[in-house]
Amino acid sequence: MAYDFERAIERLRGKTAMVAKRYRVAIDQRDAARRDVKRLEDELLHKDREIKELKMKIEYLSVVTSARPSADEMKRSRAMLSELVREIDQCISDLQS
User: Fold this and answer.
1) E strands, the chain, where?
2) Read out DSSP for 42-55?
3) How far apart are CA 31 and CA 37, in angstroms?
4) Which of 4, 34, 54, 68 is 20 to 30 A from 88, alpha carbon to alpha carbon?
5) Tens digits of per-residue pLDDT, 50-86?
6) What is the pLDDT of residues 38-52, one digit of tens each?
């Protein structure tokens, strides 16, 4: 009967060692996964910043492009300003007369 207990204890020790080994492997895998998650979160944060910068550059380029007048608009603006200057000159000459 003592022999049966010894065999049972040995089997139990073997199973305990196997469970402990699997536990260590699981802990190592968990730690590796946490490191991967941290690395990916840092990478995501970096990419988010980069996206934000690029969106601002696109916005700036859009504003600059829309603020820059075309050749036709420049001609119309110059013609309008010339007409206004003529009218101002006419008003000044009327006031001096």
Assistant:
1) none
2) HHHHHHHHHHHHHH
3) 10
4) 68
5) 999 999 999 888 877 766 777 888 888 899 999 999 9
6) 999 999 999 999 999
